[in-house]
Amino acid sequence: MALVARAGSITRSPRGAARWWAKVAPYVFISPFYLLFLAFGLLPILFSLGVSLFNWQGVAQAQFTGLSNYGVLLTDPDFLTALGNTVIVWLGSTVPMVFLALAFAAVLNAQRLRLRGFFRTVYFLPVVTSLVVTGLIFSVLFDPSIGLVNDALHAVGIAPINFLSDPNWMKPTLIMALLWRWTGNDMVIMLAGLQSIPGDIYEAATVDGATGRQAFWRITVPLMRPIILFDFIISTIGAFNLFEEPYVLFGGSAGNIGGTQNAGLVTGTLIYQNSFVFFNFGYGAAIAWVVAFIIFVLSMLQLKLGNKPVD
Amino acid sequence: MRINRREFLQLTGAAAAGVALGPLAGCGSSGGGSSSASGTLTVWGFTGAIEGVQNQIKAFEKKYPKVNVKLRLFSYDDIHANLLSAILSGTGAPDLASIDDSRLASYVEGLAPMNAHLSQYQSQFVPPTISLSSYRGNFYGLVTDSEPMGMLYRKDLWDQYGLNADAIETWDDLAAASAKMQSASGGKVHLYALNDNDTAAYEILAVEQGFGGFYFDTQDRKVIVDQPAIIDAVTALKRLWDAPGVLQNPSGGYSGNAMTALLKKGTIATCIVSPGWYPQTLVQNMPEQAGKWRLTRVPAVTRGGRRAGYQYPTVFVVPNQSNMKSLAWELEVMGLTGVGARHLYAVDHVLPAWAPFFDELKAKPDPFFGGQKVVEVWNAIAHDCPPIAFGKGFLQAQSIVSTHLTDILTGKVTPAVGMKTAASELRSKLHLS
Predict the structure, then answer these.
(1) Half-sphere exposure of B342 toward its Cβ, with a 13 Å CA cutoff?
(2) pTM for this prediction
(3) In degrees, to the nearest 5, what angle opens at C-alpha B299 toward C-alphas B295 and B300?
(4) Kindly report the CA angle at B98 between B96 and B104, in degrees rounded to 5?
(5) Cβ-count burial of A169 within 10 angstroms (0-12 exposed, 13-18 middle, 19+ buried)?
(6) Size of interface A-B (CB pairs under 8 A)
């Protein structure tokens, strides 16, 4: 009895502490992420929302202007141009990229394919290539005087094209660069999705007499819908946050970051230009928040349209 | 038509100048500090502007043996962003930094005014370099060079096709000359090239019409791009654009290889530049054209009007955070006057802003220009400029006006409509009247 009583008096407070620690410990272990996110993610995001309500230029004292930056934005020709360019680049790159990625992934997933690892690496290489190198290579490739692309066009009798300074060609060139760089990334995502589809479904389809094409469109694509939807959403986010490629290809001069007639100006470079070239922080923050809202709306729209149960 | 030093500095980026330091004496101090002063003096700079100060570091350290000068080189773009971040964060700013003068107004609340030194140095620097390194009555530092805008032309081609530079007084005269050259050369030679978003051409016109703030008044409180005199000037620019024989929108712009190739081939006979451009581009790329070029003033908007424009040099500033302001100022003076100024010229061949050296160069004939004393011409142009000042929204104004200039020159809108729309956009984005 004395031993039990003594045991009871020993375990009452340690049991409570242990219970408390068991509850709190998971949060403590994941707290580094949240603390860092708070310091370098959430607080700056909230700060930028506040900044967007001010006229703040350079080192000068910021002046509260309410929603006036947002009002200016609605009729700003630069913003409308950047938004239009971004939408064109988004549609022109995302749609073919998703389908190309699915096609490549389907080929790589084929049982008969040899050297699968080699091909996977080759397709993924552009994703890990330095962006500066990519920009330099594309600049040389598409140069109107010495570029290989124009050499090839010349060989078939087509006059040189200024891919990087002709307003009619700047966006198609940017789209080509994006397709080259990011299809491999999407392909890896698609491949993971394809590999999660049970093989017996295809066996059953083969037994039922389905051709390869029928199996692809009737089985693969529907079962891949969640992955395709995910890919569309992250591609949408990526397109509206696009900065590196247009900056490297067209941003020769910080004051003329969009290139000829702003044909290469996208929302990402517009935000950068206003904030870090013009030092007009309030206006740059307002642009950023409007773009974030557009991304949110488009993502919700895609989720609503694409998120149907798979039969 | 125009090539400016800012584009040149951006293109050369962080390439090291490879400047050799020598045990040279300073020109004399402004009484910055005692020889017992100690600590680390941090200097930030970029290639093309830092060489004079860099040259004087050893002499400075000899004078102040307990002071260690730490020099950090940045690319042209990075130094502006980094300096702003340092000033805004309240820590990490250097004691002395070089920045593009056109961006000075964005930093002034974080810089130490140097008004106490103004009277001593005002007469030592050519106009309008003191006004353009001042903002709303405060003086912030000395500039590296002087950048009046002039018109360089191929005298041999002008003579060949019957053009006389003395007869060109207005932009309309230049437009008529373009038509004449087009006709006389059978279209083989263009008198000049022009981009449809040419803000440098606009900026020359603004100065000619008396607006030294380019897009704003000199107190940086009002937008002026819709003033009647500016609309008249832009209308003259539109007539220039429409003149027969103009080479419109050369590929790659004025700083591009295509433009250099066209000048080298003699396809373009004229360009409007600041003195910072031709030593690097013309002399280096076209030595075979030595003796064929001449310098004259840019045309005026109206006959008898002002024939002058100005670009933007580099200015050295002392951030408020510095605990060694006097020493920083002294190093700045050593670097931009006397031996430092001469060294900067020897390396970069930019037109000096320091008057005594400028006066020495005035008397020297330039063989590339057929023996013409070009510095005298630059000097006359600079003296004709009104006080120059850069507003806080200068770069943004350039971008906005550039877009509207394209609409004007390509005929989508009239000059009046285009400039009024530009003014409205400027006022709303920059919250100015």
Answers:
(1) 12
(2) 0.84
(3) 145
(4) 105
(5) middle
(6) 73
Mean pLDDT confidence for B63-82: 94
Q: Which residue has the higher pLDDT, A271 or A12?
A: A271
- Residues 92-111 on B with a CB inside 8 Å of A are 105-110
> Which chain A residues touch B408 with a CB distance below 8 Å?
none
**Tokens 């003296």, residue?**
B383
Homologous superfamily of domain range A68-306: MetI-like (1.10.3720.10)
Q: For residue B387, give the amino acid letter.
A: P
Contacts of B197 in chain A (CB under 8 A): 256, 261
Q: How far is CA A58 from CA A208, A254, A288, B83, B133, in A?
A: 70, 16, 18, 11, 17
- Cα–Cα distances in angstroms (integers) from residue A172 to residues A179, A250, A257, A263, B100, in the given order: 10, 13, 17, 11, 35
Region B2-147+313-353: CATH code? 3.40.190.10
Which of the 8 DSSP states describes residue A281? H
> What are the sequence ranges of the domains in chain A?
14-51, 68-306
Q: Whole-number mean pLDDT of chain B?
A: 89
**What angle do the packed helices A77-108 and A225-240 form, to 10 degrees?**
150
* Residue ranges per structural domain of chain B: 2-147+313-353, 148-310+388-430
Quick one: CATH architecture of B148-310+388-430?
3-Layer(aba) Sandwich (3.40)
Residue of B346, B389, B270, B388 whose CA lies nearest to B22: B346
A contact test, residue of B321, B400, B426, B429 with most A CBs within 10 A: B429
Cα–Cα distance measured from residue B380 to residue B309, given in angstroms and rounded to the nearest whole number: 11
Question: Is the Cβ pair B106, A59 closer than 8 Å?
Answer: yes
- From A58's Cα to the closest Cα of chain B, the distance in A is 5
Question: Strand B39-46 relative to strand B96-100: parallel, antiparallel, unpaired?
Answer: parallel
- Residue A18 forms contact with B (CB below 8 Å): no
pLDDT of residue A82: 96
pLDDT tens for A152-175 read 998 999 888 888 888 899 999 999
Confidence of residue A237 (pLDDT cuts 50, 70, 90): very high
Domains B2-147+313-353 and B148-310+388-430 belong to one CATH topology: yes
Q: pLDDT band at residue B282, thresholds of 50, 70 and 90?
A: confident
Is A62's Cβ below 8 Å from some Cβ in B?
A: no
Kindly state whether A274 is in contact with chain B, defined as any CB-CB distance less than 8 angstroms: yes
Q: Is A60 on the interface with B (CB under 8 A)?
A: yes
Cα angle A18, A21, A25 (rounded to 5 degrees) comes to 145
Q: Find how far residue A301's CA is from the centre of its chain.
A: 17
Q: Are B171 and B237 in contact (CB under 8 A)?
A: yes
Q: What is the pLDDT of residue B18?
A: 32
Checking ipTM against 0.90, whether it exceeds it is no
Q: Does the distance separating the beta carbons of B429 and A283 come in below 8 Å?
A: yes
Check A78 against B403: CB less than 8 A apart.
yes
